[in-house]
Structure to design on (297 residues):
């Protein structure tokens, strides 16, 4: 089976809220060394929503240079200001990004026809591969499979979608509706525990945050899928299911992911962009128990 595990990378800050590019580069190197199939920069777990446009552009330019085509590099260029998205996307693609990823407008719910108009204009103005980002918990609406299909029929540069929904119902409909007509259209799930279900349903894999913490486990799991290794797939699923307890440690999962990465020695500091909370001692102890239970601390 064809399958990919892409990491939506955390963004590493120093205690003054500045980008720590040395540590960021080391994190990218670790992901690539462990065989991750791609890196998404400036995604939700990357805290794009709490960063200035200048910081996001700086991080994007650094990532493109650092990753240097050693694995797929996708740059999140989402913004509530439409006129920021197009030049940011064009610049990232011109510098060598493999694709950009864009979430729809948030704050108010948007109807299907309005979403089509929005992405239709974006896809018309961006000369390069674009992934849509569907995250209804953050936007308040879901991009309908029929809307995605209509956009793909009109725009060949619509490369795929990240579907961040806890269940698989909507993702399966995307696969059935869009990939049946455009087999090269890529459909990724956004929650790690859906990876195998996604691939078995005909999707392309996962863009999942646990790979920031355990890239070696994630790549072993995706390799089992590629090799049709049923026992390996089951073993990986059960491990990921247990590790998914990390997401329930705190109501905001980004600092929890960073604390876990720090405990494993992947990053030196777990600072988040203000006003994102930091992990407290009780949460740290819960994370420590989860990692110790899996023998990866």
């Amino acid at each position: 089976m064809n399958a990919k595990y892409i990491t939506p990378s955390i963004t590493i800050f120093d205690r003054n809220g500045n980008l720590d590019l040395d540590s960021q580069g080391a994190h990218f190197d670790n992901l690539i060394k462990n065989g991750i199939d791609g890196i998404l920069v400036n995604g939700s777990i990357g805290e794009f929503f709490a960063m200035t446009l200048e910081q996001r552009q700086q991080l994007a330019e650094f990532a493109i240079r650092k990753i240097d085509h050693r694995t797929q590099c996708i740059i999140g260029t989402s913004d509530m200001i439409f006129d920021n998205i197009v030049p940011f996307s064009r610049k990232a693609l011109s510098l060598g990004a493999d694709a950009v990823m864009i979430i729809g407008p948030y704050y108010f719910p948007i109807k299907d026809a309005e979403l089509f108009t929005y992405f239709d204009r974006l896809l018309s103005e961006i000369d390069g591969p674009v992934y849509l980002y569907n995250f209804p918990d953050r936007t308040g609406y879901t991009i309908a499979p029929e809307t995605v299909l209509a956009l793909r029929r009109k725009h060949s540069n619509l490369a795929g979608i990240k579907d961040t929904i806890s269940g698989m119902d909507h993702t399966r409909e995307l696969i059935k509706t869009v990939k049946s007509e455009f087999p090269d259209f890529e459909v990724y799930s956004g929650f790690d525990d859906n990876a195998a279900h996604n691939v078995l349903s005909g999707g392309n894999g996962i863009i999942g945050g646990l790979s920031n913490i355990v890239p070696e486990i994630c790549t072993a799991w995706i390799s089992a899928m590629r090799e049709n290794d049923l026992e390996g797939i089951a073993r990986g699923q059960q491990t990921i299911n247990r590790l998914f307890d990390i997401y329930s440690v705190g109501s905001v999962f980004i600092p929890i992911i960073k604390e876990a990465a720090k405990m494993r020695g992947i990053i030196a500091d777990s600072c988040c962009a203000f006003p994102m909370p930091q992990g407290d001692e009780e949460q740290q102890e819960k994370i420590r128990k989860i990692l110790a239970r899996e023998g990866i601390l």
